[in-house]
Amino acid sequence: MDIRIVQFISALRAVGVRVSLAESTDAFRAIDEMGIKNRESFMTSLRTTLIKDVKDIPQFEKLFPLFFGVNQPPMKDISQELTPDEASQIAKALQQYTQQLRQMLEKLLQGRPLTNEELERLDQMVNMDNVNDMRYQNQLVRRMEQALKFREVREALEELMKMLQEMGMDRQKLDQIRQYLQGNQKALQDQLQQHAGERILRNMANERPQDKMDGLYNRPFQNLTDDEMHLLRKEVQRLAAALRTRMALRLRRAKSGQLDVKSTIRSNLKYGSIPVEIRHRNQTQKPKIVILCDVSTSMRHVSELMLSLLFAIQSQISKTSAFAFIDHLEYVTPEFDGRQPGDAVSEVLRRMPSGYYNTDFGNSLDNFFHDHLDKLDHHSTLIIVGDGRNNYNDPRLETFRRVSHRSRSTIWLNPEAKQMWGTGDSDMLKYASICQRAFQVSNLAQLAEAIDHMLLQH
């Protein structure tokens, strides 16, 4: 409990509550006197000793249940309430579901909360280690629920009730099972809410002093604030300069690279075939890029930074053809003619403002195939920046295969964790099987690394 209290004090400091060393000592003395068995007395002891300003009370009341739990009823094991015949009926009904859905339904039926191992796996899937802002707690919970297929589970529960009714199960027993299942699922949601809040606070408390920009390089795009995004827009120019320098060095080194035997012999015939002048192959050429960027709300930050980087290093690229899409495709290269990359990107985003859209890469891909296929040839690298989610629309895989076949290579950049690829409405795994490479680019550091890798191949 002492460690828990220390973490709680660190979290209070992380959210701006001033807690001195003397006040921390007073808190431990008060707890020694009052004890921890009575929850109200325990909370009062901490609040009285740690909070000196009335404006900090809301922060205290918000954080306290995240570290010390809330008085919630435990999950109920329905299996203990079933007769052997009822248990057999449920076991038979569960056989129709996929393994993941069946495991979740069994967890709810048995009243089992998520284990520490399961929570750790969820943390990795949603990049929990890099989140240190409480404003993203609910967003993280929704993403964890998506990973656990909560929506599909709710639909499966209704199907399960209908099947049990058709099997002849007593209506009163069905109502009891439904009530228990709904209560257990709510308990799991509460567990996720508390876990997400606690982990964010722990990240905030354990954050070491470091250069702010280094931290932003590794901050997930979906967790960036407006101020942080503004800082990254400025940093893109410095990053682009570094990329330009590396590319220029590679091109210069390529000119004195692999020995070209045939060219050397031909050029030295005048010397009696004595190799006085050595010739080398130059196989490195400036890349030709065709890029399709998803600029829907969830993808806007990564696409904006990608376009800014790409056009900021134009001196090292043969030609760039840029397209933006949400539910249809727009050719945006003309926006970059004679403009600074940042201004051009702003104009692109103005033409395709954020809001409610039914993202449809399949339809956008079809637009490209019929209207812009001539932009691709065997010298081109095709880059797609998107999460591969089509809202259950036709992914147009055969069209993507034909488009990809025309290019030198096809590369996909996706900000979602790889564990999320192929879940829900994601067609990412299908697209990835057609690409030469697919990168996870959850932050600016990963995006820059992916671009550097792509350009290295030319």
Structural class by secondary-structure content = alpha/beta
The CATH architecture designation of the largest domain is 3-Layer(aba) Sandwich
Please compute the radius of gyration using only Cα atoms.
29 Å
Q: How many domains make up the coordinates?
A: 3
User: Gap between N and C termini, in Å?
Assistant: 57 Å
- Runs in which pLDDT lies below 50 for 5 or more consecutive residues are none
Total number of helices: 19
What proportion strand? 5-15%
Quaternary state reads single chain
Which percent bin holds the helix content?
A: 55-70%
Number of DSSP strand runs: 6
Summarize the main sheet: 6 strands, mixed
Describe what this molecule looks like in 3D.
The protein has three domains: 2-68; 78-207, no CATH class; 223-259 and 286-456, von Willebrand factor, type A domain (Rossmann fold), CATH 3.40.50. The protein is built from 19 helices and six strands. It has helices at 2-14, 21-34, 39-50, 57-68, 84-94, 99-110, 116-125, 137-147, 150-166, 171-206, 212-217, 226-254, 261-267, 300-312, 341-351, 361-371, 397-406, 428-432, 444-456, and strands at residues 288-294, 319-325, 329-331, 380-385, 409-414, 437-440. A six-stranded mixed sheet has the order 3-2-1-4-5-6, with helices on both faces. Helix 2 packs antiparallel against helix 3 and helix 14 packs antiparallel against helix 15 (341-351). The mean pLDDT is 81.
Task: Give the topology, please.
Blueprint: H1 2-14, H2 21-34, H3 39-50, H4 57-68, H5 84-94, H6 99-110, H7 116-125, H8 137-147, H9 150-166, H10 171-206, H11 212-217, H12 226-254, H13 261-267, E1 288-294, H14 300-312, E2 319-325, E3 329-331, H15 341-351, H16 361-371, E4 380-385, H17 397-406, E5 409-414, H18 428-432, E6 437-440, H19 444-456
Parallel strand pairs: 1-2, 1-4, 4-5, 5-6
Antiparallel strand pairs: 2-3
Helix pairs in contact: 1-4, 1-10, 2-3, 4-10, 8-10, 9-10, 12-14, 12-19, 14-15, 16-17
